Amino acid sequence: MAGDGRAATRQQTPALSSEAPSLGGAAGSAEQPRLRWVREFWASTLGKKIVVAATGVILAAYVILHALGNLKALQGPGDGEPAAVDQYATFLRDVGDPVIPAEGLLWIVRAILLAALVIHVVGITQLIKRNRAARPGNPPVVRRTLASRTMALSGFLLLAFIVFHILQFTTLTIHPTPLAQGAVYANLYGAFQEWWIVAIYVAMMAVLFLHMRHALWSVLQTAGWDKPNRNPTFRRGATTTALLVAGGFALIPILFFVGALPEPPSASASASAGIEAPG
């Protein structure tokens, strides 16, 4: 009898069918779409916020390191040798060589930053659309800071500025002032003798301050670390970090423009010091 009961139980247990329902249109559970959880995570609002926060941290870390590197321009044009900022640029191109081909690590970092930027922008755009779609006809008035109200605007302004900055100083595609491949200090000096270029860079650093301040604070909120007793410290930390970064960036064009940083050597002196001539 016990054996018959077990047999009956086995007969009542449904066998896995190739027609079993599954997400993504897979034929059976053995053919469930791989990495389905990634799509589901990205599709959720919370998941998008986490991804936006993570990519924002990557971009913020790069911006901080980039600001520190730019401050090497304060060391001047060099005394009989390439400027410190030129040597720093050469280091970035050659780091990892010969294990990694020249500029190999630099391009890896650029690919990571580009992917983070694209994901960040797409995630924010989709979150904005969801927030607007879920907003009632007459939403309640909520007190928000200027940085919070202008996050979308400041983000897209920064995106446009990044494109302009890369085309000017990285690819040398646009050159309202003379530019030379590898002569970073000379390029900065020449560009920041023009008042309108200085105005663009300083204005965008003000935008960067607003965006970065609120972004750092939002990351802490998304991570769930905000608490009433911690929030004042977190806000001060976000404000201080954003102020130091934006101020460090803005300092360079201002000092070049007012003449606080000396003029670079002539083209012939630069060539003898090992700086590449314009190509």
Model description:
The protein is mainly alpha-helical and 279 residues long. The protein has one domain: 3 helical TM bundles of succinate and fumarate reductases (Up-down Bundle). 65% of the residues lie in helices and 0% in strands. The protein has helices spanning 2-12, 36-43, 45-70, 84-94, 104-134, 146-149, 151-170, 184-191, 195-222, 231-258, 267-272. The chain is globular and about 65 Å long. Residues 7-11, 13-30 and 267-279 have low confidence and may be disordered.
Overall mean pLDDT: 82
Q: Beta-sheet strand percentage?
A: under 5%
Spans of at least 5 consecutive residues whose pLDDT stays below 50 are: 7-11, 13-30, 267-279
CATH topology: 3 helical TM bundles of succinate and fumarate reductases
CATH superfamily: Fumarate reductase/succinate dehydrogenase, transmembrane subunit
**Structural class, please?**
mainly alpha
Instruction: Give the count of structural domains.
Output: 1
Kindly, what is the distance between the CA atoms of the first and last residues, rounded to a whole number of angstroms?
A: 93 Å
The 3D shape can be described as: globular
Strand tally: 0
CATH level 1 class label: Mainly Alpha
* CATH architecture classification: Up-down Bundle
Question: Major sheet: size, sense and barrel closure?
Answer: none
Number of helices: 11
As a whole number of angstroms, the C-alpha radius of gyration is 27 Å
Q: Approximately how much helix is present in the residues?
A: 55-70%
What is the ordering of alpha helices and beta strands?
HHHHHHHHHHH
